[in-house]
Amino acid sequence: MLQQRSLKTLTRAVGVGLHSGQRVELTLRPAQPDTGIVFRRVDLPQPVDIPVRAEAVTDTRLASTIAQGNAKVHTVEHLMSACAGLGIDNLHVDITAEEVPILDGSSASFVFLLQSAGIVRQNAPKRFIRVTRPVQVREGEGADAKWAQLAPYHGYKLSFEIDFDHPAVDSTGQRVEFDLGQGNYRRDIARARTFGFTRDVELMRSNGLALGGGLDNAIVMDDYKVLNSDGLRYDDEFVKHKILDAMGDLHLLGKPLLAAYSAFRSGHALNNRLLRALLAQRDAWEVVTFEDERQAPGGFAQPAQAW
Ligand SMILES: [Zn+2]
Q: What confidence tens digit (pLDDT) does each residue in 238-262 have?
């Protein structure tokens, strides 16, 4: 049987929120089979649990925010991406403020935390959502057009294309494909950092955003070039970060996907609309398990690699 996964022990991290600039403590704890991933705001007078699911996403401007009543957690996508990349099904995420720490702007630190705590197989079958027919969402027309789609695939692969008109981005690959069955999430995707432009930062800060952002947790560009003295971590780091984000946004479904995702200029908002469109079309998906692990697609069956 292909089994669900959780952590062996708990692990902690401290950092600042990218947008709030607030100091925040994060505790990742093992969870029972079929719990899913549940954030808990432990700083509120009455702690509030926020289980991840597509409908829990309430705000997608600049980051993915989930909420339960008035309790919110912003910028969940990089941690969720690490969970998707390592096949984590069940996890408690205790958090002391309303934003997940940005750490180095990628998901590499979350991957390190999760693997350091140890990943265990649990006595319950891993439940996938298998896409059985294509579902697409679109936004805008002509040069503003964006789209994202899910199509049937025995495995999980993502292809993403960006279209930035900026000298520093133009000179890099703007399209990338990642197949979980063939690639290695930790090596190929996890280190890609979020990115931003100095011309946007002033406006964002005047709106109370990007207060924790800087050269140590983002690729920052002026109108011509990358300002980080160490340059890029991958030749195509920008579009790889979009794959990282998409994996996190899609893991908010609550179960791993068996599908081919492809997208052109998509973002958190369109990714969430895609999940809701999928769920709304009840004949476009089914829940499957694998009694015989050998029948499972590549990337899911093998144990997570140790450091
Ligand atoms: Zn991101």
A: 999 999 999 999 999 999 999 999 9
215-231 burial, b for 16+ CB within 10 Å, e for fewer? eebbbbbeeeebebeee
Q: Report yes or no: 18 and 78 within 8 Å, Cβ to Cβ.
A: no
CB 148 within 8 A of CB 261: yes
**Structure tokens belonging to residue 145:** 């057009």
Q: Kindly report the backbone phi and psi dihedral angles of residue 86, in degrees, each rounded to the nearest multiple of 5, phi listed first.
A: -100, 0
CA of 197 to the centre of ligand 1 (A): 14
Q: Which two tokens stand for residue 79?
A: 């941690």
Active site residues: 268
77 CA → ligand 1 middle, Å: 7
pTM for the complete prediction? 0.96
* SS3 track for 216-273: CCCEEECCCCECCCCCCCCCCHHHHHHHHHHHHHHHCCCCCEEEEEEEECCCHHHHHH
H/E stretch holding 140 reads: none
Q: State in Å: Cα 44 to ligand 1 middle.
A: 26
Residue 220 bridge partners (DSSP): 196
State how far the Cα of 24 lies from the Cα of 231, in Å rounded to an integer. 28
* Cβ-contact 14, 24 below 8 angstroms: yes
Q: pLDDT tens digits, residue range 111-143?
A: 999 999 999 999 999 999 999 999 999 999 988
Question: Which pLDDT band, with edges at 50, 70 and 90, does 205 fall under?
Answer: confident
